[in-house]
UniProtKB/TrEMBL annotation:
Record-annotated VHS domain positions: 67-131
Enzyme Commission identifier(s): 1.12.1.3
A Pfam family annotated for this UniProt entry: 2Fe-2S_thioredx
Keyword Iron: yes
Cofactor: [2Fe-2S] cluster
InterPro entries to which the protein is assigned, alphabetical: NADP_DH_HndA-like, NuoE-like, NuoE_dom, NuoE_N, Thioredoxin-like_sf, VHS_dom
Family: Belongs to the complex I 24 kDa subunit family.
Matching Gene3D superfamilies: Glutaredoxin, NADH-quinone oxidoreductase subunit E
Cofactor note: Binds 1 [2Fe-2S] cluster.
Protein name: NADP-reducing hydrogenase subunit HndA
Length: 169
């Protein structure tokens, strides 16, 4: 549940974003992109708020937010891991990388984000670095020639850099 102060603060930032872009309908996608950058996803109450402020029907705003793959209506982790499952990566066993990550992050069937909102795991069809297959990207950092052991180490390093003790997660 959002505390009053949290949601007021959220709307303050949303107001700034709308103000900076103008509330013309043509600015909607840019506004949604900036809001998503801020919150890492598009919270439902913020989409409704944007619709009200911009004078657009909520269904239109939700329609845009669900149409584009880059928008997410679900909370995402601080670290978004994209594992490539394009042809070059697939033949170099990207599925094993994915399996190792799901196990390491303790993700259950159908779950892509860890409960502590630290990691989100996604697959993509080609990251454009096929020479480094199998490849994964975490936020903007590219990791090439991955092995199941190497991904475990990458995750451990991130957890360590966050100062989290493993068994507290
Ligand atoms: S197929 Fe994986 S980077 Fe191209």
């Amino acid at each position: 549940m959002l505390a009053g102060t949290h949601s007021q603060r959220s709307f303050k930032r949303v107001n700034e974003i709308i103000k900076a872009n103008g509330n013309q309908k043509s600015a909607l996608i840019t506004i949604l992109q900036e809001v998503q950058e801020e919150y890492r996803y598009l919270p439902e109450e913020i989409l409704t708020y944007i619709a009200t402020v911009m004078g657009i029907s909520p269904s239109k705003v939700f329609g845009v937010a669900t149409f584009y793959e880059n928008f997410s209506l679900e909370p995402k982790g601080k670290y978004v891991i994209k594992v490539c499952d394009g042809t070059a990566c697939h033949v170099r066993k990207s599925r094993d990388i994915l399996k190792a990550l799901r196990k390491k992050l303790e993700l259950k069937e159908g779950q892509n984000t860890t409960k502590d909102l630290l990691f989100t795991l996604e697959t993509v069809s080609c990251l454009g670095a096929c020479g480094l297959a199998p490849v994964m990207v975490i936020n903007d950092k590219v990791y090439g020639k991955m092995t199941p052991d190497a991904v475990e180490k990458v995750i451990d390093d991130i957890i360590e850099s966050e100062g989290i003790v493993n068994d507290q997660r």
